[in-house]
Amino acid sequence: MTRTDEHVLALDLGTSSARALVLSADDAAPIPGALARHKISPAYGNDGSATLDLHEYVEGLLGCLDELEQNGHLDGIGAIVLSSQWHSIVALDNRGAARTPVITWADTRSIDLGLGPSFDEQAFHARTGTWLHRLYWTRRIPWLLSDDSPAAFAGLPDLVLERLTGERATSVSVASGTGTLDLATGAYDAEALDIAGVKADRLPSIVPTGWTGTLSKEYERRWPGLVGVPVHPPTGDGAASNVGTGGYDAGVAAVTVGTSAAVRVVHPIENAPELPWELWRYRVDDKRAVTGMAFSAAGNLHAWLTGVLRLKSDEPTDVEIGASHAIAIPFMAGTRPPAVVPGGSGVYFGLSFDDSPADLLAAALQGASLEIDRGLRTLDRLFDRQLDVVLGGGGIDASEWWRRCLTATFARPTTVCAEPEVGARGAAAVALGLSPEPGGEHLTPVPDEVSRVADLRLRYEPLRQLAVQASKVFN
Q1: Which residues form the Carbohydrate kinase FGGY N-terminal domain (predicted)?
Q2: The domain 7-236 is classified under which CATH number: 3.30.420.40, 1.20.120.350, 3.20.20.140, 2.40.50.100?
Q3: Widest Cα–Cα separation across the chain
């Protein structure tokens, strides 16, 4: 635990950027001006690949620390924490060197597994919180083994931790995102390893939440202010974002909008409610789990449309919420498991010559809001209550219209997290036992907007099913 007069250095390993920032140790609030960012450009291929250059990524992250050092922000640091994208994988040789780029969550390559009728995927899902989907190592490792003979496998956060400390280890949180963890025990699942075709010694060792390492001598010389500072194991970005937004108990659903979007609830792993097939479940730390639903089209959808439509404003302010005649089904990047809609399946219905670029943007953001609402209502049923909602993430911070749209779609009040860096904030909170509050505005749904969205949902649902069917024909 840090002293309250010390700061926390947070490393946030995102898909579109790597960031290093300094936070207050008592409430995980960012220190003004103490942020460095390295832009990341994933490489996408026609074969479904979506990769990151590991060397470029890590060197860019180290450069962020150099920038903080040069500006005097690495003095008085009492802890180093990490938040990272889930689901990445790198194949390693017998010397620990990378044989592949970082394969990200967006990569669609893998192999199908013919496990036969004896395999019980319902039991597997209940135990691991995941499915046999390309997102997870259970299908990615056999695919990587089919073309090469890697000696070991690790994720991006595991390799960053190894680079900094010399120890290749992972957290129960990051391991849960691989699809190979037994959620109840916090150890690798024997059946998942058997399906993947590896033994546990070929994967990073899982360390407890209280584990800490220290920087290697090389980096202690590079950043003298960090000598002896404990480095905490990484937290998966979804879990970190929930906690950082203020959604860290079973009565609150956190909706976060970044490149993608998700709605999640943090709750104790002990006596957790039975997991519905439609939801995933990962771990936050040794005692808590996070259950939710994720969506592939969110901030990426917003950024793409504002560029394609050449909008002067990234807000459809002239369009009333729920009033767009056009309906967008936001399957541009496909759907997350267990649904199997592939990328390239986005659809607009009801277009007319009267529609403006702002109408098309509004329809897309409304469609994304309705998708998130599907997940929220599923969580309401699971926890047997209407959950409170807190909104957070860069997409939320950037768009007032979208905040109002989500509030009307959920038909309940929402609280907006005032801090956009929710992943870094949450990683600090998990490592140091903090309970950050949202601290932002409270939104009340506007009755007319709620009514229009309710009417729109009646048209949206059958068109969504039509889009699902069309995706099977088109792809």
Answers
A1: 8-244
A2: 3.30.420.40
A3: 65
